[in-house]
Amino acid sequence: TGNTSVKEGEALTLTCSADSHPPSLITWMKLHSEEYLQNGTETMPTITGNASVKEGEALTLTCSADSHPPSLITWMKNGTETWKINSITASESGTYHCVATNNYGSQQSDAIHIEVKCENVLHLFNFISVTIFGCLL
């Protein structure tokens, strides 16, 4: 089922179901062609969010993937899996990407470099403050 007439560049969604046990793997092919139609993650996932944050702030990045069935999103930093960061520190600066995975495979996003800005304020007296850039360790 589905709309069989679309304009070039538009998405085409076709649905096929089979009542079988064990479940069937459905493969789409173009008639009179050896070419398989693409299933699964249709486009490379994209990352949106602010790549420059101050130390102590929350890092909020969103990974979007147009896929069917929906993809499981995994975040990676410098090649290892990572989780949500509520209060970021300078040590969490680095290169992040996401991977969208479903039954048909996986796609990796372009990388985004996160820069954590360190800003410390040193109060010398009640009336003088000096801003020091760079994290005090």
Task: Summarize this structure briefly.
The protein has 137 residues and is an all-beta fold. 0% of the residues lie in helices and 40% in strands. It is a single-pass type I membrane protein.
Characterization of the model:
This protein is mostly beta strands and 137 residues long. The protein has a domain at 41-133: Immunoglobulins (Immunoglobulin-like, Sandwich). It has strands at 40-41, 46-49, 52-54, 61-64, 67-68, 72-77, 80-81, 94-102, 105-108, 112-117, 119-125, 128-133. The strands form four sheets. Strands 3, 6, 7, 8, 9 and 10 form a six-stranded mixed β-sheet that branches. The N and C termini lie far apart (62 Å).
Features:
single chain; 137 residues; mainly beta; Immunoglobulin-like; six-stranded mixed beta sheet; two-stranded antiparallel ribbon; elongated; disulfide bond; glycoprotein; Ig-like_fold; Ig-like_dom; Ig-like domain-containing protein
